[in-house]
Predict the 3D structure of the following.
Amino acid sequence: MASQSKAQETPGRRGLEERKQLIMEIYNSLRSADIASIEFEGPEIAVYIRNPKFIVENENVVKDLARKLRKRIVVRTHPKSRKSMEYTIKFIRENVPPDVGIVDIQFDDVLGEVRVIAEKPGKLMGRGKVFRNLVLAETGWRLEVYRKPLLQSGLLDSVLRHLQRHAEERRRALRDIGERIFRDTLIGTRHVRVVGLGSFGEVGRSAILVDTGESKVLLDAGLSPSGYGPDSYPYYWSPEFRVDELDAVVISHAHLDHVGTLPLLFKYGFRGPVYATPPTRDIMIIVLRDLINLMRKAQGEPPFEPRDVEKALTRLIPVNYNTVTDVAPDIKMTFINAGHILGSSMVHLHIGQGLYNILYTADFKFYRIKNDRSTRLLPPAEYSFQRVEALIMEATYGSKETQPRAEAEEELINLVNKVYKRGGKLLIPVMAVGRGQEILVVLNEALRSGKIPEIPIYVDGMVYEVTAVYTNYPELLVKPIRDRILKQGENPFEGPTTVYVTDHYKRDEAMYSDKPAIILSTSGMMNGGPIVEYFKYLADDPRNALAFVSYQAPGTLGRRLQSGEREIELEMDGGIRRIKVNMEIVSIEGFTGHSTRGELLSFLRRLNPKPRNIVLNHGEPSAIAALAHTVKTGWSKLGFESPPIIEAPENLEGVRLYPRNLKMKLALQHS
Amino acid sequence: MASQSKAQETPGRRGLEERKQLIMEIYNSLRSADIASIEFEGPEIAVYIRNPKFIVENENVVKDLARKLRKRIVVRTHPKSRKSMEYTIKFIRENVPPDVGIVDIQFDDVLGEVRVIAEKPGKLMGRGKVFRNLVLAETGWRLEVYRKPLLQSGLLDSVLRHLQRHAEERRRALRDIGERIFRDTLIGTRHVRVVGLGSFGEVGRSAILVDTGESKVLLDAGLSPSGYGPDSYPYYWSPEFRVDELDAVVISHAHLDHVGTLPLLFKYGFRGPVYATPPTRDIMIIVLRDLINLMRKAQGEPPFEPRDVEKALTRLIPVNYNTVTDVAPDIKMTFINAGHILGSSMVHLHIGQGLYNILYTADFKFYRIKNDRSTRLLPPAEYSFQRVEALIMEATYGSKETQPRAEAEEELINLVNKVYKRGGKLLIPVMAVGRGQEILVVLNEALRSGKIPEIPIYVDGMVYEVTAVYTNYPELLVKPIRDRILKQGENPFEGPTTVYVTDHYKRDEAMYSDKPAIILSTSGMMNGGPIVEYFKYLADDPRNALAFVSYQAPGTLGRRLQSGEREIELEMDGGIRRIKVNMEIVSIEGFTGHSTRGELLSFLRRLNPKPRNIVLNHGEPSAIAALAHTVKTGWSKLGFESPPIIEAPENLEGVRLYPRNLKMKLALQHS
């Protein structure tokens, strides 16, 4: 009797044969480059050549080949074909116009890159390509030019230097990763399944396991804002999750609830690649280092150490927006702008060579540029794709509409003026990443245009370091902000009254001076950080005010205050003190970096093509249920041609997306 | 900051401490029995004593202790305190009344049992207890008396003898299993999750993984009737499933779609316990051996071998109905009569020392005894329990009502008469287990009462062997049948015209004789077995008839014929032949061993207490969707006080049952 063929064909199967053919094609096409070796380095195929002039003269040959093979191909000179660093530095200095203002020249042995940090890289931009080719042909090094940061982050610099010191380890890691990505497949794509390890039916500890039978990818590795202990980790002990079987970790953005347990994976033996955009990588370094400090203060021994963060960095593969990247034999991944914070991404997974496509929005901000009259930092999330069969969407604000952003700005400005007039201090808890920068831009803009008086703005916590990263990526910010950085050389995050709190004196000044002031400080949900110290001291005085400008998760001090608690017990002066809260407490929701309910629906309306499956996560149960209801009943108004299947698993629940019995699921949904 | 305590308490946690206390209590209570050792043997605590008289005199002490400790305690004599086998045989023969008719005396070294097989065990029953105590006190062996089977199964006997030969291996296995069950817990019960590995959204390859964080139990290990290849196995390659992490396999009943891949688990390294009722064990041996033969015929190399079946048997722990048994540190399991086939069980899991209770119906037959006027073999499924929070229920006949059983019997009898009159043969595909015996009883009853003429009834395939097992367990059959066996010593499965096809001559006679006949043969869905040979020969003649008396799964020859295909290509005489089907084809659904739609709803109505979660499986998508709809809208009519959460996962999907966000799930269900 013939066995029935079911849904277990292996269309995603590919093997050594394909790999051999790839290598043959590359050899044939780039023969005259004098190929020294071809290596699978992470998701890229690196072709090491002995004749650097070839790249200069045949740039399009490589591009065409990459397009044809659908692979990321990079051509590098063989280390032995590169000139010495001394020679290269001398050559660059001698040939760069003096007004470019070279600040530093760094080398990346792994990538064969020489990085020039300059005051005015624009001066080089016009003739950039010619000069880049000149450097390459002459020295064998590939030139990259970077702008000198407007702000300097010591922490970031030190970690990047650490990485350079460990070039050889990184190279080895990249090759291991490459071998795994381009491996001979064992099973092929059998199915597409998504298991919620965290952030399902809740906000926080985002972690989603995508399992195709052949490979496994973890989307995000977050930490719940409710604490630092194991209860705040995703369900990593779930039996389907094993670090040794994981092909890749993809980080959507650098908020702790999406990246806070990444080092833990390395502590427990993960040695695979981590994919993130370059700004996400940079911010991640800062917030994870800070997290270790916060944990030390809160509970003594943190569950991981700085070296685990460094291990993660050694295996981090930066990927720019809209660059298709192989992350497993049967999964291609693309980051797409999510508009949430700098570097934040939606993640598109193309599975099984055309079988199935998932779009994971992670945290995203969708707004209509036309209607917007507010001070924005980031462009809105993208909504048009080649293929999307399943959408995994956040539902943080799924149940209630929030005020428009322009109104929120007005409300904040009015609050500043009110508190100023009564001689009080305005305390604003902000996440180090995103809201801090947004509020700084709003306040400095209001100062410039005279909408608020000359009031000192103290910025405490990790906001400074992260702002430094923001100024490093002007090309990712909206045009008005970008232009101020690139054309006017201004820092939009700094005004005449901005004070970065870098020592105890400045903190004392912010806290104890009798003058009105605005204090921005971390953490954003008041579950630690200097904000708590400010709060202890300022809570008592009714002239002061506390303004929440972001989502407050259940279990955090922020949420308790927001929900009306006015007596709080906190550690103070070595004991537990009951603090009476007399300060004004205000919630301004319109600043959210998340899509509001209207924006979520508007995103679904614009989204193209329409998915057949919608999985809702990253929301409190009521928010998820409300959004699900609206989509279930209103799909036709949202432009769907047929009702999508809407599901909202809990953590530990798994949803199979492909192959799927659509009919049964629909019948169940509508019965 | 204090970490928030979430749903991850460990109420099911227990440890070595508890184990020590258990042992202390036993020592203290049974001191005067002269304890040699206390062993954890599978789910039982075995107390080896040197003074067998103690048990005779203190039977209640042991019972009370077991009740108090909530453990299965068995007291055995220490091997050195047992008399020789020769002496024991002599002692028994000398002291048993001669009319008992001893047929055989067997010893089980592992259990310290002496088994007397007798023609008339009833003669001993009255004074059974006294005699048992006499034997125990005198020889140290525990006496068990069995009835000589009405039919002899050579296969079953040979395998049971094999087990006796491997007593030492079994003893070691039992101790390993015991150590694992009574281990120091690592994590405790963190959650209750159910993952569908097979039979979700389909009929066949039943396999359900129950995962509590601390332990993992597999409910059933079936094979899809659609074939014998890997596509017919459950999703054992799913990453959350690993044989080395499995605490136990629980087999609900001995149909291949529930037990057909059990040997495969052993082939791939499983060495834990398999729990089944004694009749399920016996039938399992027969059907799995037969399966290997069928696979050999169908595809050459079977995926497992007889020794894998034997490994499973070595680790099989028989458990009677209604006996609570520890199967993992945090799971107690109870088998409850399911009324489907002999030995068939619903499985009740009591998890985390009171945290949560699951009832898995598996395949079950629920009917109201009062209204029933048909010839039944088995009592209906139970419906009353101490606690049930989640129900996993089959939905095979969820969408359409089937005819009442009494009508089905009438229809079959009419069909026999019709075919007899036109001189044809009536071919009935039956599963070796269940339907075969049911139909035999109906036909022989009709013969006895003259409702059908004296027509030969040929019984081919494994039906004979399985019927032998049925006659071994009269106490599990309904009273009228039981009485005929026990009181009248009759075989209700055999009539004056019954012919067991045991060789080619008889098969030729059944097939080629020109006289009317009834032929019952396996397999029940015509996906192999002698039925296909009969069909090839008989299909052509319009005087013949083919009567389906059970569910036919998609992809089987049975289903194709049932759906109207009348030209079938089959291997015949060494080539592929196109067979024209001219015989009459009839489907009589009322014989089903599954609950009909009405019976499913009636079961839910009677079920006490009412579960909060209902998970539907073992049904085609349309059947599941229809049943879900009825329960979703009609819960109040079914006696639920609040709407239950109804879910129907697909294979590879996981549902978390505890802890659970009931509100969100309900809101989603009813949005």
User: Anything to note?
Assistant: Residues 18 and 24 of chain A are 10 Å apart (CA to CA). Chain A has four domains: 30-80, 82-148, 167-179+191-400+594-670, 405-591. Chain A is about 35% helix and 20% strand. The first strand of chain A starts at residue 35 and ends at 41.
